[in-house]
Amino acid sequence: METKTITEMIKSTKGKFFSVTFVKKDGSVRKMTARLGVRKGVNGKGLAFNPSERDLMVVWDTGKKEFRMVNLKTINTMKIAGVTHNLSQSK
After folding, report:
1. Alpha carbon 15 to chain centroid, angstroms
2. pLDDT per position as a tens digit, 24-41
3. CATH number of the domain where residue 58 is located
4. H or E element: which one contains 7?
């Protein structure tokens, strides 16, 4: 599945919780419950780079209570609105 389609699926959550399983940069697999639209801790400085240019998406990790990046190219599964999408088969 293309990263554009995955981005649209995640954005369609409109701030509701979703879960995602992906491969981190170090090769380990990570499962995260996250959401978009969190403003807590935003200082207005922004990032030094554009995450979408590197196929990354900034999300709020509800477990760690911090912002994290999800690599859209390495997502294995996503659960959005109770529907599980298995993306590892489509690669």
Report:
1. 12
2. 999 999 999 999 988 887
3. 2.30.30.520
4. helix 3-11
